[in-house]
Prior knowledge:
Elements: H1 6-19, H2 23-32, H3 37-45, H4 52-55, H5 61-69, H6 73-78, E1 82-83, E2 89-90, H7 92-124
Antiparallel strand pairs: 1-2
Keywords: Activator, Nucleus, Transcription, Transcription regulation
Pfam family, one: Med31
Main location: nucleus
Amino acid sequence: MTLPDDKTRFECELDFVTMLGDSKFVQYLQKYYFDDEYFVDWIKYLQYFRQPPYVRFVKNPISLFYLENLQHQQFRQHLLLTATNDGQVENTNLKYFEAQLTKFYKTFREVTQEGLKQADKEARQ
């Protein structure tokens, strides 16, 4: 078995971190991997993406939120699937996190855009 070169490995790891921004992917992980020691160790290893030289490659801040918090058992337990009254499996905690993060991201984008408009307006004066 040959190991991938550093560039390929980095790209694969970045793809995984990027996919953490998708709640459906996080749901998949929780079904199969949240209790796996090796998975948790790998999440801890991937924390290097939160450091300045690498964070610039991550386009979705929600991915960084999950990357940081999935290393903590309490957070993973909080995201466990729950059954609804009609027998459907649903994750209300994950939906809540997703809604809050989307709200934050939308507000952040609006504030940033407003700041850019203001700076542009001041530059033109």
